[in-house]
Predict the 3D structure of the following.
Amino acid sequence: MDIECLRTIVARHAASANALVALGLAMDARVRGTTLDGDAARRTEAVLGELGVSGIVASANAVELAPVLASIRVDLLSGGKLLSERSASAQALEASLRQAFGDVSAGFPALFKRLIAPQLADLPERLDAPGAAFLDIGVGVGALSVSMLRQWPGLRAVGVDPLPEAIAQAQSNVRAAGLEHRIELRTGLGQDITDKDAFDLVFVPSAFIPEPHVRAIVQRSQTALRPGGWLLLAMVNPGPDTLGDALTRFRTTVWGGTVFEKGAAQALAEQCGYTDSRLLPGPTGAPVAFVAGRKPG
Ligand SMILES: C[S@@+](CC[C@H](N)C(=O)[O-])C[C@H]1O[C@@H](n2cnc3c(N)ncnc32)[C@H](O)[C@@H]1O
């Protein structure tokens, strides 16, 4: 078995974990006598519908649901605890989760270099050229930036994130990697950057960023890019079937991110004036796909 098979197996079982989260949220609301709001309610209901349990959850009473809900909590929390480096407090759990998200994204640059960058005109040469620069919007704990700089040893990066706790983790990770002279970390929103003609590549992880922010970031990145530089918008891949699709939308919505309907991300890049825009599917079984667009010039 190779690493791609392993990724596919993990993605398949991750769907079960996400199904349990959706079921748990719906049951928790029933047990407490509250309702879920807006998009989260819609996405949760869609997952329950796909699982064929909407009616059962709606009609069972709190006493019946409570132990079933508790069994979900036991599985998810004990798993989370085992995998969160024995941290007890909620803050430490958040930090472990941020690090886990970052560690997932650290696998991307090798794949990007091998499969995606060669499809984007002169991007590989640009990233190798002296003075090459990468803008990592939503830098999180800095794992993606560190991994990008390992792939392109001459590259410099600017990482932006509104969460001071994430930036503090990123500072420590960047220091540990010995890359503090090549990665600049800024606390702030991606849409508030003021750089002009400064970057060869801008990366935007739209699955973690609310839609109005993504729209503003895509627009703002036009100015931040050097002429001929590329925007890479990472977005969720629709699942392989209707349940997978409902789970993907559910997970992205509860993360506070953007679900683009078919064609919408590419349309956004085109509206903002990017040329050569294209949809790049992720590797088989991967939960991400990409829209790339180029700043004219
Ligand atoms: C899952 S993380 C990305 C992981 C990252 N690649 C790493 O190595 O840790 C997504 C990040 O986007 C950030 N984010 C959300 N909205 C944002 C915005 N408007 N501008 C910049 N970053 C934003 C979140 O705070 C979060 O840290």
User: Anything to note?
Assistant: The first helix runs from residue 3 to 32.
